[in-house]
Specification:
By secondary structure, the protein is mainly alpha-helical. Among the domains are: 50-231, no CATH class; 391-497, no CATH class. 62% of the residues lie in helices and 5% in strands. The protein is built from 18 helices and 5 strands. The protein has a 5-stranded mixed sheet with strand order 2-1-3-4-5. Strand 1, helix 3 (63-70) and strand 2 (80-82) form a beta-alpha-beta unit. Helix 6 packs antiparallel against helix 7 and helix 7 (209-230) packs antiparallel against helix 8. It is elongated. Mean pLDDT is 85; it is low at 1-27, 471-479 and 487-497.
Length: 497
């Protein structure tokens, strides 16, 4: 079968009609936009609207609140406005663990003010504890995920170093839906991290204990976000160093939610490093940090954090199998994945559930091959098919391609084990779909992996068919449409062209 080729649009934009349609979709440049351009002022779609709620514990003149607002003064792409009402309106500021219950209210308040980032917090003595919330919730299982419940601790008399950290966190937390805003945020992050490094070192030595740990947690999360956005290894290493320092600073409160969070995020970041660089030492350190986090996290009190840690541990042991080829890490990974699904259910967290099902598909097909056990492989296939009910090509094309590749591997393993031409034909279809999806998005490396997998399937099919002359024909051998439908087991699908 001839390989499909990827096509790219011409620089000219195609036909005159196509160019006209494209031009019609562009935003119209207004006189106001032109004036802003001349004055060097970003347009509303190229700046983040910062809303600052009066700090709890501030004086009648809102001195501390004004000091926080002054951190944004003169930064044109970060216009800030102080709100009339504090947040929360009543009661003491929430602990990080309590914040998950309050976060929806914070986002509601932010949406009402038409802002991108809500800045709030409290003053206690000579310290300000500043918190940041965006309109979108954090992804608990991401290596850079830090809840807005963890405040940035800075001196009440904010100097330039503290001001840079405040601006950095506003950028790091922001998740604007408007593409131009998102692009501006992404482009500004590395420079903001670099400018904040010196100040972070100063605060690191001036702050003590929990305050130091909280501020290091915030900086690490911002550095991780910038590192992932720009593929910066040095910035990701800065994040790892800061997470490790945060865990050390919080060690006196070992067993606390803050310490557990530092360990969880450190483990997630180290796992990402291990997957990127094949670093066995990083994998061992990641596993140790994640296991340490589980000693202080409870499914009852912090279900999402606990579930995220279980998922990451499953990925760590799956990676460990890849390093050792031992069967026990695979069994452990499946145990952790199953535990995570008690929190990330299909009904409440469909995307995360689909992520875990894909991971189960990966671990299951490997375990089935080693034992060997066709039933386990078939369960892995079922997990992949369930994941694809959420990871659809039209909505999540790259996730769809990833799961198609996992599905293809499981089907290939089943076909090789049982001699099933049907399984091999479906594996061929899955790999080809993944390859095409990757090529469409210019992702040559994963496309090459899918291509190699596709070649392995096609090399095996003739040999398998020779061993089983009475087995069903592969799809490219079938001329009769009805025979094709019977082979596939559903009359709704059409024969591939």
């Amino acid at each position: 079968m001839a390989a499909a080729t990827a096509t790219k649009a011409s620089p000219s934009g195609g036909t005159p009609a196509a160019r006209a349609r494209a031009a019609a979709g562009r935003p119209k440049v207004t006189l106001a936009d032109f004036v802003r351009f001349l004055l060097g002022i970003p347009s509303p779609n190229q700046r983040l609207e910062i809303k600052i709620a009066p700090l709890v514990g501030d004086d009648d003149d809102k001195t501390a609140t004004k000091v926080v607002a002054a951190a944004f003064a003169g930064v044109k792409y970060l216009p800030a406005r102080v709100l009339k009402r504090p947040f929360p309106a009543e009661g003491a500021p929430p602990t990080p663990l309590q914040f998950s219950l309050m976060a929806p209210l914070a986002r509601q308040a932010l949406a009402a003010e038409k802002g991108d980032v809500l800045v709030f917090g409290e003053r206690i003595g000579d310290r300000l504890y500043v918190r940041f919330v965006s309109l979108l919730s954090v992804e608990e299982d991401a290596p850079d995920a830090l809840s807005g419940g963890f405040p940035l601790a800075v001196p009440a008399e904010i100097d330039d170093d503290a001001a840079r950290l405040i601006r950095l966190m506003a950028l790091a937390v922001a998740a604007p839906a408007i593409p131009s805003k998102a692009a501006m945020t992404r482009d500004a992050l590395p420079g903001a991290v670099e400018s904040a490094i010196a100040g972070m070192e100063t605060l690191r030595h001036s702050l003590k204990g929990k305050d130091r740990g909280l501020t290091l947690l915030n900086f690490a999360s911002a550095a991780a976000r910038a590192g992932y956005a720009h593929g910066s290894g040095p910035m990701l290493q800065q994040a790892i160093d800061a997470y490790r320092a945060a865990a050390e600073a919080l060690a006196r409160e070992k067993g606390s939610y803050e310490w557990a969070t530092a360990q969880r995020l450190l483990g997630s970041e180290l796992l990402a490093l291990a997957e990127r660089a094949g670093d066995r030492a990083a994998l061992d350190a990641a596993t140790a940090a994640l296991q340490a986090a589980t000693t202080a996290l409870s499914k009852d009190t912090a279900p999402r954090d606990w579930g995220a840690t279980q998922h990451r541990l499953g990925l760590a042991f799956l990676r460990r199998h890849g390093e050792t080829s031992e069967v026990e890490p695979l069994k452990q990974s499946l145990t952790f994945f199953q535990a995570a699904m008690h929190v990330y259910t299909r009904a409440e967290h469909p995307q995360r559930w689909a992520d875990i099902m894909n991971s189960i598909g990966q671990a299951g097909q490997l375990l089935g091959q080693i034992l060997p056990n066709a039933d386990i492989i078939e369960r892995a296939i079922g997990a992949c098919r369930q994941a694809l009910e959420i990871r659809r090509r039209d909505t999540y094309p790259l996730f769809w391609a990833t799961t198609q590749n996992t599905l293809g591997s499981a089907l290939f393993a089943l076909g090789r084990m049982t001699g099933s031409i049907v399984a091999l034909a479906e594996a061929e279809e899955a790999f080809d779909g993944a390859r095409q999806a990757y090529l469409e998005r210019g992702m040559d490396k994963p496309a090459l992996v899918a291509e190699r997998n596709l070649t392995r399937v096609r090399q095996l099919m003739p040999a398998s068919h020779a061993k089983n002359p009475n087995a069903p024909k592969s799809w490219y051998e079938i001329e009769d449409e009805e025979e094709w439908k019977r082979m596939k087991g559903d009359g709704d699908k059409e024969k591939p062209g």
